[in-house]
Amino acid sequence: MKKEVEYISRDWKDTDGLIDDFIAAMECYGLYVYMNPMTVGTDQYSFMIHDEPLSKAELLQIDGSYEDYYCELKGEAMEEFDYTEEDMEDGSCEDEVNRRADELFREQFGCEYTDVIDLED
Predict the structure, then answer these.
(1) 66 neighbors 60 (Cβ within 8 angstroms)
(2) How many whole angstroms separate alpha carbon 98 and alpha carbon 104?
(3) SS3 category, 32
(4) Nearest to 80, CA basis, from 98, 65, 64, 62
(5) What number of helices (H) and strands (E) belong to the chain?
(6) N or C end of the chain: which has fewer CB within 10 A?
(7) DSSP E strands: which ranges in 8-111?
(8) Is residue 100 within 8 Å of 77, Cβ to Cβ?
(9) DSSP H or E segment with residue 93
(10) End-to-end CA distance of the chain
């Protein structure tokens, strides 16, 4: 029985298309390849490979750094509204900041922050 093999090779000076070829080869074997949503828009290459389709919320939950990122978004929201830490501590602006952080999260990832948290249960 002949085994199927996907060949991928490039000269070290010419790596254009190498990642796309790796992804295509993995998909030939029924694997799902995703860009790590936390590194999209950065200079990093980070992939998540799974044998089943995953939602964006599942990818974020697997990555695990979504909570830190959500905290950064809350910080951005506080700056937008010109709130201080003291404002957050007394609770006077918490709902507004959380709503804005939720909007920013949804814009960035196309899913709800609560969808990611719910996967932990």
Answers:
(1) yes
(2) 10
(3) strand
(4) 98
(5) 6, 2
(6) N
(7) 32-35, 47-50
(8) yes
(9) none
(10) 45
Could you report the per-residue pLDDT of 51-74, keeping only the tens digit for each? 999 988 888 888 888 888 899 999
> Are the C-beta atoms of 52 and 30 separated by less than 8 Å?
no
Hey, what are 68's tokens? Answer: 């830190």
As given in the structure block, the two tokens for residue 112 are: 């709800």
Three-state secondary-structure class, residue 63:
helix
**In the numeric block, which tokens belong to residue 51?**
């044998």
Q: How far is CA 77 from the centre of its chain?
A: 20
pLDDT single digits (tens) 80-113: 989 888 888 888 788 999 999 999 999 988 888 8
In angstroms, the CA 34 to CA 46 distance is: 9
pTM: 0.68
- Region of 50 on the Ramachandran plot (φ > 0 left; ψ -120 to 50 alpha; else beta): beta
Q: Answer yes or no: are the C-beta atoms of 56 and 75 closer than 8 Å.
A: no
